[in-house]
Amino acid sequence: DTAVSQTPKYLVTQMGNDKSIKCEQNLGHDTMYWYKQDSKKFLKIMFSYNNKELIINETVPNRFSPKSPDKAHLNLHINSLELGDSAVYFCASSQSSGGYFEQYFGPGTRLTVT
Amino acid sequence: EDQVTQSPEALRLQEGESSSLNCSYTVSGLRGLFWYRQDPGKGPEFLFTLYSAGEEKEKERLKATLTKKESFLHITAPKPEDSATYLCAVRMNYGGSQGNLIFGKGTKLSV
């Protein structure tokens, strides 16, 4: 069973469109994350979320919004897509209790905006 | 500003040629240093967590060590299947309970 899964694997869309990426984890973790990996392979946190708080990286445009229907899912919605949004987006999860914070990553979604 | 720097950017080794990757950090309130492996087209795969200076962790041909300023990932007698990008990340303790990770830019290892 895949621990952290994302759909779709690839997403090609035009500027100005709105799109969503879905993420699900079956590890029973209480915290989920979204990361962006740019063309230079630099991995940067966008959001972290558990049932108590949402932490947003201040550099993330408000066109991006995470939505969590339940503890096992954290979807990423992107409005008015721009060329600079092209990147690979990774979802991750971890367990915040117990003092261990290893994050487990999904396979990534390659977003291409044309 | 909190920062994680990895060196070298790329490393090419012959099979069996041992070496080390470096991760130096300047963060306040460190709450763990993490090593990940990333293969092309895949998500980062968790390898190790180190919490305090002097700590060491081993897995097969890999050994991670931690000092107050840096961490090393030692690769002993590497094999071609060890080829990947190795990412270092540090967890800070600021405000929120999650303690987000700050990643370095990685070292691309070719064996």
Question: Could you provide a short overview of the structure?
Answer:
The complex is a heterodimer of chains A (114) and B (111). With 114 residues, chain A is mainly beta.
Quaternary assembly: heterodimer
Overall geometric form of chain A: globular
Structural class of chain B: mainly beta
Write down the overall geometry of chain B.
globular
The whole-number mean of residue pLDDT values of chain B reads 90
Number of helices of chain B: 0
Distance between the termini of chain B: 34 Å
Topology, number of strands of chain B: 11
Q: Quickly count the helices of chain A.
A: 0
Which chains have the largest interface?
A: A-B, 29 and 26 residues
The level of helicity of chain A is under 10%
Strand content of chain B: over 45%
Structural class of chain A: mainly beta
Describe the structure.
The complex is a heterodimer of chains A (114) and B (111). Chain A is built from no helices and eleven strands. Chain A has strands at residues 4-7, 10-13, 19-25, 31-37, 43-50, 54-56, 64-70, 73-78, 87-94, 104-105, 109-113. The N and C termini of chain A lie far apart (34 Å). The mean pLDDT of chain A is 90. By secondary structure, chain B is mostly beta strands. Chain B has strands spanning 3-7, 10-12, 19-26, 30-38, 45-50, 56-59, 62-66, 70-75, 84-92, 101-103, 107-110. In chain B, strands 2, 4, 5, 9, 10 and 11 form a six-stranded mixed β-sheet that branches. Classes of the chains: A mainly beta (114), B mainly beta (111). The A-B interface holds A 4, 31, 33, 40-45, 48-50, 52-53, 55, 57, 90, 92, 94, 96, 100-108 and B 31-32, 34, 36, 41-46, 49, 85, 87, 89, 91, 95-103, 105-106.
